[in-house]
Write a structure and sequence with these properties.
Number of strands: 5
Radius of gyration: 24 Å
Number of domains: 3
CATH class of the largest domain: Alpha Beta
Helix content: 40-55%
Structural class: alpha/beta
CATH topology of the largest domain: Rossmann fold
Number of helices: 17
């Protein structure tokens, strides 16, 4: 939070800032972005928000529209007239305000310059925060404009805060990497929860002091992921489990629905062989060996090993590091990342209604 507080204070004082918050799903990026928006509102910044969508990444100017259309729609007559004073024709054409279909690709430079002028006009009147969540699902034209903007911030009081997943890279990851490489940009990578942090969350959820083995079981099962941990604790409460050591094994076997949705969504992007191997590893746990997976999956040894490498790479993206390798003699239950075993358990427990 210290970096975000500094960025908001600097922008309120008239200086530009660029902050990228990145990490795997559930690590707390959205929460940090939300906290930054609250700080910006309290500091008097005009806050503009947008969020990428997996099914909307092909929509031209999807992010830019979320940022600017509310402004244009809700502006007073005088404000709108001033907004449209200089590049009126360009803005009207870009956003289809004259009931014509917009085409930002027809004049890429003109579109980017028009959007830049709009945000610069706003920044001249008060500091601005541009908040973009799930930027890994952003559309191409909006990302190109963000790169254009970052290179021209100069002395404009604009804070650009962008959050993106690192375990689910989008089709335009190179553009986000380019923004991160700009000298003005600073990157925040939230880390996993510590045991003491999980202890405090459990204390808050259960209104009593949790015992150590229960806390460690929650930490290990969720991999320190804040979202997974909260979902696991809520599921434990719903099952009537108390935060005591005797329930440590029981809490590790729970499969919260939200965790399952995230995990299964990620699994659908893997190859059929990798999905099959992950299912059998989740079934066997720490006792899984290549020969076990081969026997039940009807895959060859080479296919199992190749699928194990694919799972290991997915786990590396999830953790944001280079630890871990492919499936070998005895893969661990989390070789494919925290929560995958939980998600697959739930899929089996619901009659395999999920289709990969």
């Amino acid at each position: 939070m210290t970096q975000l507080e500094e960025a908001v204070a600097a922008t309120a004082a008239g200086h530009p800032r660029v902050v990228l918050i990145e990490g795997p799903a559930g690590i707390g990026k959205t929460a940090l972005l939300c906290a930054a928006r609250k700080l910006a509102n309290a500091a008097g910044l005009r806050v503009m928000t947008a969020r990428g969508g997996e099914l909307e990444r092909e929509l031209g100017l999807g992010i830019a529209r979320q940022l600017f259309e509310p402004l244009l729609v809700h502006a007073s007559g005088a404000e709108r007239a001033e907004l449209l004073a200089r590049p009126a024709e360009a803005v009207i054409r870009l956003f289809g305000l004259d009931d014509t279909e917009s085409d930002p690709r027809a004049d890429e430079y003109g579109s980017q310059n028009t959007l830049y002028w709009l945000v610069a006009w706003l920044a001249e009147r008060s500091p601005v925060m541009i908040s973009i969540d799930d930027a890994h699902w952003s559309d191409l034209t909006s990302l190109q404009w963000l790169g254009y903007l970052v290179r021209r911030l100069e002395d404009l009081p604009i804070l650009l805060a962008v959050a993106r997943r690192t375990d689910e890279p989008g089709t335009h990851a190179d553009l986000l990497a380019g923004i991160a490489a700009e000298s003005l940009a600073r990157t925040i990578r939230p880390g996993p929860l510590t045991l003491s942090a999980v202890h405090e969350l459990a204390r808050d959820r259960f209104a009593t002091g949790p015992q150590q083995a229960f806390v460690r079981a929650c930490h290990d099962a969720a991999g320190g992921n804040p979202l997974f941990t909260l979902q696991l604790l809520d599921a434990a409460r719903a099952e009537g489990l108390r935060p005591v050591d005797v329930n440590a094994d029981a809490v590790a076997d729970l499969a919260p629905e939200r965790v399952s949705q995230l995990v299964l969504g990620r699994m659908r992007r893997l190859s059929p062989d990798a999905i099959s191997v992950a299912e059998h590893v989740a079934l066997f746990g720490t006792d899984a060996e290549v020969r076990h997976v081969r026997a039940l999956s009807a895959l060859t040894e080479g296919q199992v090993l190749h699928a194990g490498d694919e799972l290991a790479k997915a786990a590396q993206r999830h953790r944001g590091d280079r630890r871990g390798g492919g499936l070998r003699a005895q893969p661990g239950p989390h070789s494919h990342g925290p929560g995958v075993g939980l998600g697959l358990q739930r899929a089996r427990g619901t009659g395999r209604r999920h289709h990969y």
